Amino acid sequence: MSDWRWLRGLFASGFLLSGLGCASFGPVPVGPEDIPELSELAAREPNNGEAQLRLSAALAAAGRCEEAVETAEKGRAAAPRDPVGSLVIGQCLEEAGDYEGALNLYAGFIQEHGDAPGAAAVEGRRTLALQLHARQSARSAVDREGSLGPADPQTVGVLPFIVAGDSAYHALSVGLAHMLTTDLALLRRFPLVERVQINALLEELEIPSELIDPATAVRTGRLTGASRMVLGTVNVSPSGRGMTLGGTIVLESGELVDPLSLEGDLEELLDLEKGYALRVAEDLGYQLSEAERQRILENRPGSLAAFLAFANGLFAEERGDFALAADHYREAVRADPGFGEARDRLEGAVGAEAFTGSGPGETAALVSRVAQTLSSPLGPDLFGSTLQSSVLDIASHQPERATIDAGTASASVTVLPEESEIIPSLEAIIRILIRISG
């Protein structure tokens, strides 16, 4: 065998990468064609939880959800910390339109087994189901708009902020709405409409955030059951240094509460938002205790950079770009390692990206993929991009064309070099891989 063919075989087999701990092989997807073999195994080993769960996934992939759920329950009894059973049952519930049942199932698994290796995959599926459920509810509300009764007098909703100025700060629209919603939730004085519901409704009505006005606020409140809607604005100066937070509370009658406005430097954004939240709470008619004020003031990331990255993550997530959202959440965690919500959102985004467009037969493989991605010592996706750029950097100095799929269960290279250049290149690649893998 020539030197080149030996190198190509080395990469194609995955030997080099797996030998350095850079890739591993996880469960393979299953489908209808696997049912006979898996049924035989499950019958022979009834207490084998993995066998029962793989059979349930294959049954669900074949559209046989009733049998899949029954089999998944057997698997869950034998292997309660394995998320595949909950995910298969949940996807069958989603397929039947029972998003509430699926969401309760996912939440129950996370609450009971949140430390399990596959919990992030369940959180990712839950993230997708939340969006799908919110869209379903939005369509239903619009269809029944003419027969809806009065909104709950206590319920409050926070609309996306209207952003004026530099478009680079457009993500503050959802970032500030999210932070204000979490601040108000800390008071536990009144029900709050979930932000995902408001976003789904505005999407259903085809109203972008920059076109929200008091009339839109009233209609959105009625459709979501909220009698009080916070309509905020943020204006970033052309210099990018100064900013103003403004807005008002729109009542169900269309009446506007006295507008509020806070000015300061962009660097003071987190302080401004806290002052804004306290003012909104007062304008809603609540006298806050010192303990409540402190809870709001302390509800913040450790830096402005972390918050801006987090806001960009929320913005991407709302648009269904979970891969980009994960990148921004990762950036937020790097800026503030103690930013717990950003870590949680990162797990949900990685899981949601994996499950987007997938079927039940891929469940076990996706659980493994999400766990491996999040457990990488170099951070999700960092290894793959580092290895790819390293190999391509080598390739750029030779008369060759190289491609590599790194950081996954398989790796392959197609190269057309001069054979005399193979061994130096291989040595360089090995040195890089050893350095990366630590």
Provide a descriptive summary of the structure in words:
It is a single chain. Helix content is 57%, strand content 8%. It has 438 residues and is of the alpha/beta class. The protein folds into 3 domains: 3-23 and 379-437, no CATH class; 32-141 and 349-375, Serine Threonine Protein Phosphatase 5, Tetratricopeptide repeat; 154-300, Rossmann fold. Strands 1, 2, 3, 4 and 5 form a 5-stranded mixed β-sheet that branches.
* Number of distinct beta strands: 5
* Uncertain residue segments: 1-24, 380-426, 428-438
CATH topology heading of the largest domain: Rossmann fold
Shape label = elongated
The succession of helices and strands, N to C, reads HHHHHHHHEEHHHEEEHHHHHHHH
Please tally the helical runs, counting DSSP H or I stretches of 4 or more residues: 19
Write a compact overview of the structure shown:
This protein has 438 residues and is an alpha/beta fold.
